[in-house]
Amino acid sequence: MRHKLYQHESGMALIIVLLIVMAIAMMASSYVLSSRRDIRTTQVIKTQASKNADIEKYLNLSKFWLMHPEDKKRWVADGRLYQIQTQNEIIRIQITSETGKCDINNASEDLLRAILKVATPDRKLQQQLVDRLIDWRDEDDERLDFGAESADYLRRKFNYIPNNQAFESVDDLLMVMDFDASILDKIRPYITVYSQQADINYHNASIDMLRLLKQDFSQRHIQDLELDKELDLKLNPYPLSNENPDESLSSIEPDQVYNVIIEIKTIDNIRYSLETYLKTQAEDSVFWPFQTLDWKTNQLKTSLFADQPKSAIFELSNEFTN
Ligand SMILES: [Ca+2]
Fold first, then answer.
1. What is the 106 CA–ligand 1 centroid distance (Å)?
2. How far is the CA of 13 from the centre of ligand 1 (A)?
3. Ligand 1 center to residue 99 CA distance, Å?
């Protein structure tokens, strides 16, 4: 009987020892896991920091080539893609002058309609979006035919009414009745609040923008020889480092805003990006020619590595990066 009890006690002790060993093992393995996680987090932060440094390097490079004193070497800010290839990654840079886009605060009804054709084929909805956009930015509270002013917003239970003033950002369009993210993302490459002009500067417009205008003009039986000439020039762009047949293509002026997108794709297909808006300063500020208006990292809506026509990519050799 006594012997049996002793056996029972030693059995209990063994179970307790086993439980302690298991608990220690679990603690140790969770420590290993969490320290592995820490190492991985540190690596991600380190890689991000080094990519941010790379991106700044390419931004400075872009500023340099955008301001280059030689016309034929200067980069062209019409949305064309410049590409640099290193051993482990591909870098693409796109610079677009905002004067080549449709300014939603100043554009005419016709121009806005042309842009909104990209968002929807529904002509009634196009007109509705145009009128509602104009009603939002115009000072009065008188509704256009298909527009919406404060009474309409209140009736539709919005908890705000139109600003009746200029848009501060293209994202403000999401406040306008019937605009949504899918419409905005479709027209985003074509619109701006920075050009401050009613018209589009064809020199600075992207091929896509010129094609869109050409299509709209054709539908309305309008011929614009200047547009045709620019479209032709951009479809057959001059090769980099050769004589530029049209020097005015690459002029850079003070007080203009440029959209700069830099995207790095690594050998492991990991992408890092920067989208920024730069404003050229007055001509006398030689040392700080650009003012930064906006700065977004890793938030690109459309990757520069999405399908692009091969002709729009300008491959840069190492001489450009060194
Ligand atoms: Ca209004």
1. 14
2. 83
3. 25
Residues 243 and 315 in one domain: yes
The alpha carbon of 132 and the centre of ligand 1 are apart by a number of angstroms equal to 9
pTM of the predicted protein model? 0.78
Confidence of residue 301 (pLDDT cuts 50, 70, 90): confident
| Among 295, 265, 297, CA closest to 278 | 295
* Band of pLDDT at residue 47, cut at 50, 70 and 90: confident
Tell me the CA–centroid distance for residue 138 and ligand 1, in Å. 4
145, burial (CB in 10 Å: exposed 0-12, middle 13-18, buried 19+): exposed
SS3 24: helix
Q: How many domains does the chain have?
A: 2
Domain boundary among 139, 166, 191: 191
Residue finishing a domain among 191, 225, 242: 191
Tokens representing 190 are 């074509």
What's the 139 CA to ligand 1 centre distance in angstroms?
5
Range of the domain at 268: 58-100+234-320
